[in-house]
Design the sequence.
């Protein structure tokens, strides 16, 4: 069992995470669990188990956080609505928007893999680049000048929060039927490659 001074130190750390770093209570709880588990693995016991004020603090943060904020799934209706709202955009910008929406939806990319972080810029270790995309027809890689014949698109995700071993993942999608051609990621990325070929080299 840890001392009162040790509990005060942990409570200070919790306060810093909650009120300075603005972390969610669940994230803080996970960090505390990791700290406790590390002590156990090293044979030092589980010091946090006896900290009653710490348990109360976490319970208070959980209640203050309110209920779970749920979101509507970003399915085809929402994607089509987004594209409809961009009807006054330039053709090039609408094309890029379609590629972003269909790529993010089809490949289930995380935001850091295809969107800018605003003032923080792009996460260059994770974001999908043009050179990470290649086109194929019936499993055979196509040269840039033959992209119009593509029936498959392959995207290399170099790093991802969901890639626990940080080995990278090669994702492939095939040409969709004409009934959903507006959301077909092969057509969307193919159009970008045809009209903006320089994007495939960056």
Sequence:
């Amino acid at each position: 069992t840890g001392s009162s001074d040790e509990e005060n130190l942990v409570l200070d750390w919790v306060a810093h995470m909650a009120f300075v770093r603005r972390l969610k209570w669940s994230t803080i709880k996970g960090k505390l669990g990791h700290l406790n588990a590390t002590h156990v693995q090293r044979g030092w016991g589980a010091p946090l188990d006896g900290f009653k004020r710490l348990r109360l603090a976490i319970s208070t943060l959980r209640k203050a956080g309110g209920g779970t904020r749920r979101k509507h799934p970003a399915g085809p209706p929402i994607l089509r609505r987004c594209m409809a709202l961009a009807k006054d955009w330039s053709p090039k910008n609408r094309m890029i928007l379609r590629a972003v929406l269909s790529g993010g939806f089809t490949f289930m990319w995380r935001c850091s893999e295809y969107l800018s972080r605003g003032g923080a810029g792009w996460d260059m270790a994770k974001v999908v680049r043009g050179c990470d995309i290649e086109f194929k027809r019936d499993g055979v890689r196509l040269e840039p000048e033959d992209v119009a014949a593509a029936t498959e698109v392959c995207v290399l995700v170099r790093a991802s929060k969901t890639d626990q071993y940080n080995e990278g993942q090669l994702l492939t999608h095939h040409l969709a039927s004409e009934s959903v051609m507006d959301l077909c990621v092969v057509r969307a990325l193919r159009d970008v490659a045809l009209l903006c070929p320089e994007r495939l080299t960056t």
User: Anything to note?
Assistant: Helices lie at 4-20, 25-41, 52-64, 76-85, 91-107, 185-195. The first strand starts at residue 133 and ends at 137. DSSP finds six helices and four strands in the chain. The two ends are 56 Å apart (CA to CA).
